Fold this protein.
Amino acid sequence: MDGVIVDSETRHESAFLETVRALGYGETHGVTWANYVGRSDYELWADFVAEHKPEQSLEQLLKLKRDRVVAILQRDQPVYSGLAELVEKLARVCRLGLASGSDRPVVEAVLSLGDLRRHFSATVTASEVKRGKPSPEIFLRTAELLGVAPAECWVIEDSKPGVAAALAAGMRVIAITNTHPADELRPATVVVENYAEIERLLLGN
């Protein structure tokens, strides 16, 4: 979802930075954001708590950042150009699932943009699996809900942990260069630069 449906990676970073500034860790948070792209907020905040031992609980920190990013997404509505049209075309010929490292409230906020929710038969979020990407668990659970074998699935990903998770699940993966350059996504089955290329690959258009 993040980096594939919505241009949200920088917005997640902004929400995190706003949160830690409000807590008094503006220049001392010690987090290298690039290390957490494609991973869950839980992992990010668990590392932050281990390092700083703030008075806020892990759950409170997750909610503070989540509320900020939802507000930003609702304000900006940063759905990638061409994405909505692609999803609508794909939904006519196959079942679509969403497997996101974000929490449920963030996923629901995104799916409400442009009425995207109606196209997805199954959605799984980070809080509904035990291990986040690069573990394949979230993709395997989504395939199970869709009622299809992993080998029958194509995954569209933008992150390195996401590509690794899809491959570990035994799925084919299209990596789009929204977040990382093509050479960093080379392990993917196919690397593309835009949604028109995905449409040609999957629909032959």
Summary: The chain has eight helices and five strands. The mean pLDDT is 95.
